[in-house]
Structures are given as structure tokens and as C-alpha cells.
Amino acid sequence: SCGLFLTYWIDKFLLLRRYQKPKMIGIRLSMNCINMIDFAFFFHAAGRIFFAANKNGENLGFESFLLLFFSGLFAFLPIGPCFYKMFRGQEYEYSETTYQEAKQHFLIDYDQVNPLSNKITLQRGFTRRLSQVCLLYTSP
Predict the structure, then answer these.
(1) Whole-angstrom Cα distance, residue 127 to residue 121?
(2) Could you give the CA distance from residue 118 to residue 124 in angstroms, rounded to a whole number?
(3) What is the 8-class DSSP label of residue 96?
């Protein structure tokens, strides 16, 4: 009972007086995690072999070494940039742009594909085109 009372008041004090909101995390953490994904497969395979070798009586299979070999090739050779150049053209450079600037490079317009906003978007596009045509015929 005494421990429960003490725990309640200590937690209440720490929550209200000592703890803070965490600082905002930027794009840098996300980009670092994405760059480390290539090495995750290699470390998974190496850990699998390490733990299987330290366990008594377990036989290391050929597939573990095969997995280690191919994941090592993928992690340490520049296979990713080669794939980008072969299949995507040039590698995309990340830059911070506004939504309106990036919207020009989208393959589809989400408002036209979305069934809820499709009708409204088509009506706006039609009135915009109609006003452009009217301006062409009314201007001298």
C-alpha cells in the first residue's frame, strides 16, 4: 500500500514536472535508416551463422552461407546505383520543394482518380477550359 502510494506520487511528479515533449525528428533520421536497410540483410545472415555456430549440436546449413554471400554482395558492392541507372534513368536527387512545385511532376492527379473528388475536379477543369476558350474568342 505504501509502495503503491509512493509510486503514484513519484510518477505524477515526474510526468508533470520533469518529463518534456521529445524534440522534433527531421528527415535526416529517416534517410539514415533507409541507407542502412541494405546492411540489415548482411547483419541478419551474419547473426544467423554466429548464433547457429555457438549453439551446441546445430548444423550450419549451406543456405546460411549462401544468404551471407549474396547479402554481402548487395550491401558492399554498388548494385543499387547500377539498378537505378539501368531501370530508372538518372538517380533522383532529394530536395526540399513545396507541394505546388512537386505537384507538377506527379504522374496522376489524385483529385481526378479519387472517386469522392472526381466530379468536382472535372467540373473545375471544365469551367477553367471553358473560360480559356471564351477569352480566346473575346480577345481582339
Answers:
(1) 10
(2) 10
(3) -
C-alpha cell at 108: 496522376
Read off the pLDDT of residues 20-79 as tens digits, 9 standing for 90 and up.
777 777 788 888 888 888 788 888 888 888 887 777 666 777 787 888 888 888 778 877
Residue recorded with cell 535508416: 33
Cell numbers found for residue 35: 541507407
Angle at 11 between CA 6 and CA 14, to 5 degrees: 125
DSSP 123: H
Q: Which residues, 6 or more positions from 13, have their beta carbon under 8 angstroms from its beta carbon?
A: none
Which residue's entry shows cell 539514415?
32
